[in-house]
């Protein structure tokens, strides 16, 4: 069974169509990257999967279940945003535990989830710090830690590295991939950076103006681009 499916999904803002019939199937454990130029509809697609945006037509399924109409918290997903959205007045540990605290989880249960997540992300020695005391890369790790402790069926990332400097961005690509190799959680990752897509994805979905131009493994797209748009987009420097 596919972990995530988009079936003929459409979205208009007012009379303006921005997603024009999208079909994507994502297998369990796959790391899939949605890539395409700014404004092509990547974030809208991800936000619809997260339940942050209604869909105008079609169906989205997570683990075989149609999620159209389900609120974000009713979906088995965790989203990592570009701007991290950490709570400034909470420690790293409390930031990571926040979703569990909201659910009323016991302290022992919270520790049982936060500690291994912190360990995986190299945050153990920073658990008592506040976000303002952290570097950009460390904040990014806390944002990922928050997603990990929820142990969701699907991770969603929207341009998680675009606020980082070039050197850190390259290091974080490798960290996110390592994390995926370790946890094997199905991941949908949005970027406009084709280098990021080519180096990180199991499967790339190339989008352009609200449609999917091609879906394939990085080498497939490189060797056999379906059309001129894919060829020039994949082939152009970042
Ligand atoms: P991307 O993430 O690929 O840069 P978006 O999904 O953010 O693209 O946007 C796709 C299109 O939808 C753009 O033309 C954008 O202006 C439009 N759009 C996105 N969100 C809204 C909104 N809330 N209201 C109106 N138009 C929107
Ligand atoms: Mg976007």
Automatic annotation (TrEMBL):
Localisation per UniProt entry: Cell inner membrane
Protein name according to UniProt: Sugar ABC transporter ATP-binding protein
Family of this protein: Belongs to the ABC transporter superfamily.
Stretches assigned to the ABC transporter domain: 4-234
GO BP term (any one): carbohydrate transport
Membrane topology designation: Peripheral membrane protein
Principal subcellular localization: membrane
Keyword Nucleotide-binding: yes
Source organism per UniProt: Phyllobacterium myrsinacearum
Gene Ontology MF terms in the entry: ABC-type transporter activity; ATP binding; ATP hydrolysis activity
Keywords: ATP-binding, Nucleotide-binding, Transport
Gene Ontology CC entries for this record: ATP-binding cassette (ABC) transporter complex, substrate-binding subunit-containing
Domain of life per record: Bacteria
């Amino acid at each position: 069974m596919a972990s995530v499916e988009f079936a003929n999904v459409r979205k208009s803002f007012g009379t303006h169509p921005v997603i024009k019939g999208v079909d994507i199937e994502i297998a369990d454990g796959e790391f899939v990257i949605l890539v395409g130029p700014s404004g092509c509809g990547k974030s809208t697609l991800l936000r619809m999967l997260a339940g942050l945006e209604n869909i105008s037509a079609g169906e989205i399924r997570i683990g075989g279940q149609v999620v159209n109409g389900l609120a974000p918290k009713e979906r088995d997903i965790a989203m990592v945003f570009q701007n991290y959205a950490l709570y400034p007045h909470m420690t790293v540990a409390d930031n990571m535990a926040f979703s569990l605290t909201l659910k009323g989880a016991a302290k022992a249960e919270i520790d049982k989830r936060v500690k291994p997540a912190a360990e995986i992300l190299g945050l153990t020695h920073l658990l008592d710090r506040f976000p303002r005391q952290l570097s950009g890369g460390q904040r990014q790790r806390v944002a990922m830690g928050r997603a990990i402790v929820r142990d969701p069926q699907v991770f969603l990332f929207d341009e998680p590295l675009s606020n980082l400097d070039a050197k850190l961005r390259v290091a974080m690509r490798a960290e996110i991939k390592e994390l995926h190799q370790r946890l094997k959680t199905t991941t949908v990752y949005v970027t406009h950076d084709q280098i990021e897509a080519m180096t990180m994805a199991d499967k790339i979905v190339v989008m352009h103006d609200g449609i999917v131009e091609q879906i394939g493994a990085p080498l497939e797209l490189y060797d056999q681009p379906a059309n001129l748009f894919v060829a020039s987009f994949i082939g152009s420097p970042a």
